[in-house]
Design brief:
Elements (H helix, E strand, L loop, with lengths): L16 H7 L7 E4 L6 H7 L7 E6 L2 H11 L5 E6 L5 H6 L6 E7 L4 H5 L25 H7 L2 H12 L4 H14 L5 H12 L14 H12 L1 H15 E11 L2 H16 L3 E3 L9 H6 L7 E7 L4
Parallel strand pairs: 1-2, 1-4, 2-3, 4-5
Antiparallel strand pairs: 5-7, 6-7
Helix pairs in contact: 7-8, 7-10, 8-9, 11-12
């Protein structure tokens, strides 16, 4: 497993973990699905409250994350089942274990620190890596494929839709011009092109984020089909949750958050959910100081009504 900075292991700090623990009370024999188990931080927190009859089912498409989570959760009293699968298949995977209903579904939609540092992932614009962005290596299309083969208009539309960058046409035009000279194969190349596209003479771009952030977000979403997979997870949850069971989703950009917000509202209107978080819960200043990744996190929680 390769890492960007001296091959060191990068620690992942679970976002809003304390807040989640305050909001969700699992019975000792409860069943939890950690739809994005990552390195097991959230599952470790809840697993400490579960007894031998309790179960955690951890899903992830990243083999390295699963291995780390296994090591972290090895000493828990409850049963822990690890499955290499996208959470879009949550119903099939849970049912395959002989489990028909669960008490808690948690999905932390962010990319973890170790994945950003992993050279093989190719996610970071701060370090030069192969332009890949596949969290699940079973996927066929890489970010380099999209950048080098997509038409200028389609690429602009992708950056605008998934990255919400109003300069998408200009960015796309610069990318196409650059790839005509040579293929764009590293994150460093792409980041430099985007920075050049946005560095207009006489204009200062007043933003707190790196100029390439939105373009990289757009490509990662497209490569991993993230929004469609989230829709499938949200659509599967009502059938899978037990009465009074909870679903909690931590999102990191407005596209994800809107999908979660709209789904919860729709299920509330149909009498299926009770929304616990009228507004999304965000990290405190202290948490953001300790974990910068938490600054854009939004937590929404809903509970399944008893008569559904």
């Amino acid at each position: 497993m390769l890492y960007a900075m001296n091959n060191s292991v990068v620690e992942h700090i679970p976002v809003l973990a304390k807040t989640l623990a305050e909001q969700i009370n699992l019975p000792s024999d409860g069943v939890m699905v950690d739809a994005t188990i990552g390195q097991g931080g959230h599952s470790f927190l809840f697993g400490q409250t579960l007894g031998p009859e309790g179960v955690i089912i951890g899903l992830d498409v990243d083999e390295n994350s699963i291995q780390r989570a296994q090591a972290r959760l090895n000493d828990l009293a409850c049963k822990v089942i690890f499955i290499k699968s996208n959470f879009s298949q949550i119903n099939e995977q849970v049912n395959s274990q002989g489990i028909k209903g669960v008490d808690f579904i948690l999905a932390d939609l962010g990319v973890c620190s170790a994945q950003l540092a992993d050279i093989e992932m190719g996610l970071s614009f701060l370090h030069d890596m192969p332009l890949d962005m596949r969290i699940d290596k079973r996927l066929e299309t890489t970010a380099a494929d999209i950048v080098n083969k997509t038409s200028e208009k389609s690429l602009a539309d992708l950056i605008y839709e998934f990255g919400q960058d109003r300069a998408s046409r200009r960015i796309s035009r610069f990318i196409v011009r650059s790839r005509q000279r040579r293929q764009i194969v590293t994150t460093g190349q792409l980041a430099a092109i985007v920075c050049k596209a946005l560095a207009r003479p006489g204009r200062k771009r007043r933003e707190r984020i790196h100029p390439a952030t939105r373009t990289f977000q757009a490509l990662r979403i497209a490569v991993n089909n993230e929004l469609e997979n989230l829709k499938k997870l949200l659509g599967s949850a009502p059938e899978l949750l037990n009465e009074n069971g909870h679903i909690a989703v931590i999102s990191f950009h407005s596209l994800e958050d809107k999908l979660v917000k709209d789904d919860f509202k729709q299920n509330k209107s149909e009498g299926i959910y009770r929304i616990i978080t009228k507004k999304p819960i965000v990290a405190t200043r202290d948490e953001i100081a300790d974990n910068r990744r938490a600054r854009s996190a939004k937590l929404r929680i809903a509970q399944k009504n008893m008569d559904n």
